[in-house]
Specification:
Length: 310
């Protein structure tokens, strides 16, 4: 068809005429010239077509997108199409779907990170079996694995246990092993025995104090760095730091000796732990506090030193 509009005279394929006509914004009665569908099969919805038919219908648009991607985005057609899709979703207020798609695009997936799941389990005081029940229910109802399975949480938990992070004391501490890996030790080793002592066996997971302290500080690394950033102390990354620690011993259940001074009570569980109260940094003559525990009496900030069943 030759375009009948003045000063145009362009020749266009019959099927593409209405598309060409839409570029003439100044014409009020352009409907007179638009292409009329004269019956035949009704046009099927794009998403209900076969893949081949979808390719056929979108070939012109695909060519344009390819040209745009090569010119503007270094040939990344996927990024252009994904961004168009995200914009279309957000324009229709479908933000949840858009967020999930964005997470998949960034390689995060729509599930939670194992460390986040572990934090949820600890903060909501869920036992392993309770968490596993919730994990299974959510997976069955939504059809997606939003929470991570228990084995993934256990792997994430290892990073929080003493003996995971290698370290070196400078200068080396006297009478302390340079080995940073800590296994299971006897719960009573090193404790002075009382006079009225009776034989007691212990099953314990006991950590060396230095390894436990390093692990606690490594766990708090982000909070410490954030505290330094807020006070503009980035120049003092090498310290020296002062770390104030509160020690505590918690008898789990009816334990007559809670303070670790008397004899270990048979068939009772005891936990020795410590809490990092605050961290300060020496800058010149004065000391600046960069971390302070807001809930020092909460068991959520207790760092384990020895978990013992006597």
């Amino acid at each position: 068809i030759r375009c009948p509009i003045k000063e145009c005279d362009e020749e266009i394929l019959h099927g593409k005429y209405s598309q060409h006509l839409s570029s003439h914004k100044e014409i009020k009665d352009r409907e007179l010239y638009s292409h009329i569908n004269r019956g035949g099969r009704p046009r099927q919805h794009l998403l209900s077509l076969t893949r081949r038919a979808q390719k056929h219908r979108l070939r012109e648009l695909k060519r344009q997108v390819k040209a745009f991607a090569e010119k503007e985005e270094g040939g990344d057609i996927k990024a252009v199409c994904m961004t168009l899709f995200l914009l279309a979703l957000r324009a229709k207020n479908e933000h949840r779907q858009a967020d999930e798609l964005e997470a998949i695009m960034q390689g995060r997936g729509s599930g939670l990170h194992p460390a986040v799941c572990l934090a949820i389990r600890v903060n909501t005081f869920l036992s392993c079996s309770q968490y596993h029940k919730m994990y299974r229910t959510v997976k069955a109802v939504t059809g997606r694995q939003i929470f991570q399975p228990l084995h993934a949480l256990r792997t994430a938990e290892k990073a929080l246990l003493p003996g995971y992070h290698p370290f070196e004391w400078k200068p080396p501490l006297k009478n302390v092993s340079t080995n940073t890996e800590v296994g299971i030790l006897d719960g009573l080793s090193g404790l002075p025995l009382s006079i009225d002592d009776y034989p007691v066996d212990t099953i314990a997971k006991r950590f060396r104090y230095d390894a436990a302290l390093v692990c606690a500080l490594k766990d708090m690394e982000e909070e410490i760095l954030e505290g330094m950033r807020t006070k503009n102390l980035d120049d003092y990354l090498n310290g020296p730091f002062t770390v104030v620690v509160k020690e505590s011993c918690d008898g789990m259940g009816d334990v007559s000796e809670k303070h670790g001074s008397g004899p270990a009570v048979p068939e009772k569980a005891v936990r020795f732990s410590f809490t990092v109260m605050n961290v300060a940094i020496a800058c010149g003559n004065k000391s600046q506090r960069i971390f302070e525990e807001v809930k020092p009496n909460s068991e959520l900030c207790c760092k384990p030193l020895c978990l013992m069943l006597a």
